[in-house]
Amino acid sequence: MKRKVAGIIAVIALTASLFGNGVMASSGSKSQGYDWGRVKTVGGGFVPGIIYNPSEKDLVYVRTDIGGAYRWDKKTNTWKQLLDWVGYDNWNMAGVESLATDPVDPNRVYIAAGTYSNDFTDQNGVMLRSNDKGETWKKTVLPFKFGGNMPGRSMGERLAIDPNNNSVVYFGARNGNGLWRSTDYGATWNKVTSFTAEQNVKDYYGGEVGPVWIAFDATTGKKADAKHKKSAQTTKTIYVGVADTEQSIYKSTDGGATWQPVAGQPHEGFVPHHGALTADGKLYITYNSAIGPYDGPAWNGTKAGSVWKLDTKSGVWTDISPAVIAPTDASGVPSYPFGGLAVDPSNPNTVMVATMNMWWPDEHIFRSTDGGATWTSFWTMGEGYSRVNKYDLDYSQSPWLDWGRTSSPTDVEQNPKLGWMIGDLEIDPFNPDRLLYGTGATLFAADHLTALDRNNGDKVKVSVHAEGIEETAVLGLISPPDGAHLISAMGDIGGFRHEDLDKAPTMITNPYIGTSTDLDYAELNPNLIVRVGNAENKDARLGLSTDNGVTWTPASNAWTDTDGDKTQGGTVALSANGNTIVWAPKSASADQSRPVSYSNDHGRTWTASAGIPEGATVSSDRVNSSKFYAYADGAFYVSKDGGANFVKSVKAVNLPSKLNSKFKAVPGVEGDIWLVAAKDNTNTQSEYGIFHSTDSGATFTKLKNVQESAMIGFGKAAPGQSYMAIYINGRINGKFGFYRSDDAGRSWIRINDDLHQYANATQAITGDPRVYGRVYIGTNGFGIVRGDIAANKPKPGNSGPKEK
């Protein structure tokens, strides 16, 4: 989906006001209060940034790449999502490029909101500012895009506040847009035209990565003194790290008026991921040959990264890179690729760094208490190709982190791992014995850090610290009429059987499918469930359960699998009685044929279906076990013989050219099908809206009371009604939101408000067939949202900005 953002000018002053709390009903439609929460997974995605406030204890934020930002709530010991109010029309704001908390006024916080800096969106970046720790926001649209989910997103922070004159805020922009500055607390922004640093490093979409971190020498300015009526003096000395392989560190000694490369800096061809300046004038920098977070240097004997220290008073640079601790078959590597960097604010000689993308056997977290002269790792190699851990890891909060496989503490490769994609780690400024670090799947806390310093056998205590963080990309949801209330298909972390909605589950395995793309259950026998997803080589892409998802068995692939095969899962449908599976896998290359196929023996053997294009979306009738349906490129197809043969519905015309989500048939009513689509700005001629068939897809009627809809699902019928409740994420009377219909689509009730919108929710929604009014919403980065009818009007939460 793309949306245009107008107004590209040198100085931006588009200030937005706060809007009121409460349920906002669209004109001409009813509304109903709902209580909103999350189905627990706990974690699930990349945490590229951790930002402590240096002035207020326990004030800490984390940012995510597609799932908003969070603030720690000490009272509840959970993380609070700050961007639930981001709506469908502004979905690009859900990715956070950078975040800054004010060291002078801890109530102030800034977010650079914008997910993509390439052609995935037409929306420009938005600078959000709050003076109540993120409870309410105002915004300024900048004349370029941000890249919260772009390569290099764990470098930083790009946002930085002057520690003396906190009205001054800097931001490092991508795609050649350079360095920007605000002098009025982020309301207006100007480009720093004197900053002309070369930026030769590009991401794999072709965009320049740009300035990635900013560090102030606080001793070169002064804070305001109200008692003596003295104004703040802006910090004079500023350092900026730029993604450039020749000259990457720049310095200003006149408050940003002029800039020059720092003399004597390393010229190793690396890029500076993080920079931290200590109170005694030491600038620490981690370097990496790649920008991350996925790409990383191979262990092929070449230098991969380094850690350097600059004494800013003497100008002397020192290579303080930790020595390699590696298994014997990787001993030829002279250095690690580094990412995260932390300096203890209470002791400038205590430094910690993390490797990044050491995919095997594990990442290293190093700690030094002598300014980098010596280092201690969280783990080392022991005798006989074994491992010695100096930490204990408690992952009970997220039991899925072991991916269904455990290991011995002495195994070289651990499961769960200490982490991967460790792009950021930070020491608590009020507790030097505590560290937070982000990984590709969660947020960890490491307590008892000083155990490393004593080396007396005590261990660091590592544990999941992600309660409240729900950062999953949900691709499919089913709510069977019996058994578990919810089963999910997710990107990157497979999927889950959510037997207890308030407790994180273990991951579905056997087969392990990293990204599950679809799942279905047999309407008349919900113990039978199938799921499909992406895998490689000869690995199974389909799993079958006969006990409602408790245990699983891999099925055969519906094609001749070979080494190097990257066929994706596509979509799947299970007949009402569970005897037949119809599977539409998705080919990974144009020269591979992956036809829609069916199986009558639980996936042991497959036969290609006739009359249906490859890559179609398939669903089953929920009453007649012989009927299957398919959609492809604006055409609808029907099979009446268990998926063996499909026939195109010639009278089913004027359908959308493509769908955002899976079309569905209504349980309990044969031939009752609902198909939805949202407006496609890349193809404005395509139809969109809600289309309903009551004759098994022979014809469809477009609803007139809904303009567009991204997804649709069904739940328990309202009291006194026989037809199931319908749930959509769609636009009615110009307002996009979540709606429920209790009368087969004749009228609609808006069930969310402007504080609960969850950005890009387009692929999965379902009601609960056992609880009237309950809806489960799959989001792209905000987890599985759960809504229930509120007994009373819900209390307001975060308030987002609204254009004047």
UniProtKB/TrEMBL annotation:
SUPFAM superfamilies: Oligoxyloglucan reducing end-specific cellobiohydrolase (SSF110296). CDD domains: Sialidase_non-viral. It comes from the Bacteria. Keywords: Carbohydrate metabolism, Glycosidase, Hydrolase, Polysaccharide degradation, Signal. InterPro entries: WD40/YVTN_repeat-like_dom_sf, Xyloglucanase_GH74. Residues 1-25 form the signal peptide. Belongs to the glycosyl hydrolase 74 family. This is Sialidase. It comes from Paenibacillus glycanilyticus.
